[in-house]
Design goal:
Helices cover 68% and strands 3% of the residues. The chain is mainly alpha-helical. Strands 1-2 form a two-stranded antiparallel ribbon.
């Protein structure tokens, strides 16, 4: 009896089984092709095209008068206005957060009188525009010609005229500080409330006083929530100081206004002020990053990489890709 060749066909030999723990051979590794993202590249190209058009229009526009910008960028009048702006910003932030911290503690106090006073202060100064507050303090002499220190409803021991006391600079400092303190009080209060109540209970169980618990336990942990908002407030205060120019305080903006009122070169002088604000804001933003990174210790498993570390990481990644592409095995594949 004849047998068909199909019946006698020997099945193909099964591939040799390999232990799962044995690393695969080079010929068994298939080349992984990354997923293509054409939409991402097209959107990036469109964004770069628009950015290039904007930069080109700014640089090549002769009406900006960049030569005039360079001429007045470091003049003594502009630098004096910049120094006054920086001093006013620093003084307002320090005094504002000192006063705001006091009101935040009052708001969290068990004393209903202190809580009510703190709430009323924040309510009033957050409800009125900053310009109105500055104009009010500038004209305080019309409401209180003289101020005195003495016994309420009794004799006064010391009196002085407000006209001689409240100048433009002091008025700007008082108005900005009181306005800043109202917002700082809420920032500090929110940071304190962000700390878990168990931290306070554990510290009190160790016999620590309330002041020491606040200073050594609560505030260091609350800084992680306070610093980002405080950094935004610092940058906002730096730009907000330009409003004091309405009081003839010679800050950065008022200094360039004095110059362009004389030379009629409005656009280039405004660009001088704009560039200085951008430079100072960039420095403050970099400082805010490192302060946030400092207070992130113990809360994050890994600290965020600094810009220099990111640059080194990207350079190492590019170098690794180039070495992989130029390796002999890559050329054979």
């Amino acid at each position: 009896m004849s047998v068909s060749p199909d019946v006698l066909r020997v099945p193909d030999a099964a591939p040799p089984r390999r232990d799962d723990l044995t690393p695969p051979r080079a010929d068994e590794i298939s080349r992984i092709v990354p997923r293509r993202h054409p939409g991402r590249w097209l959107s990036a190209a469109a964004a770069l095209l628009v950015l290039a058009m904007v930069v080109n229009s700014v640089i090549r526009n002769q009406r900006f008068q960049w030569s005039v910008v360079g001429q007045y960028f470091t003049t003594p009048a502009v630098l004096d206005g910049l120094l006054l702006t920086l001093w006013l910003t620093a003084a307002v932030m320090v005094l504002g957060f000192v006063i705001g911290t006091v009101f935040a503690v009052m708001r969290l106090s068990a004393n209903p009188v202190l809580r009510t006073i703190s709430w009323g202060y924040v309510w009033i100064f957050r409800s009125t525009p900053l310009l109105v507050q500055l104009l009010f303090w500038f004209n305080i002499g019309a409401l209180y010609p003289t101020l005195g220190i003495g016994i309420p409803f009794g004799p006064e021991f010391l009196t002085f005229k407000t006209v001689n006391l409240f100048g433009a600079g002091l008025t700007a400092l008082i108005g900005l500080t009181l306005h800043e303190a109202a917002y700082a009080a809420e920032v500090v209060r929110g940071g304190i409330l962000s700390v878990d109540a168990g931290q306070t209970e554990a510290a009190q169980a160790l016999g620590l006083s309330r002041w020491r618990v606040l200073r050594r336990v609560i505030v260091p942990q609350a800084m992680r929530s306070i610093v980002p908002t405080a950094g935004n407030m610092l940058i906002g205060t730096l730009k907000g100081t330009s409003i004091v120019s309405v009081l003839a305080v010679q800050d950065l903006l008022f200094s360039v206004q004095l110059i362009y009122n004389r030379t009629y070169q409005v656009i280039p002088l405004l660009m001088v002020a704009t560039i200085w604000y951008i430079v100072v804001t960039s420095v403050l933003s970099a400082g805010q990053f490192y302060v946030e990174r400092y207070y992130a210790r113990g809360a994050a498993r890994e600290l965020p990489a600094t810009p220099l570390q990111r640059l080194r990481g990207r350079a190492a990644a590019v170098t690794g890709r180039l070495r992989t592409a130029t390796a002999p095995d890559a050329k054979l594949r």
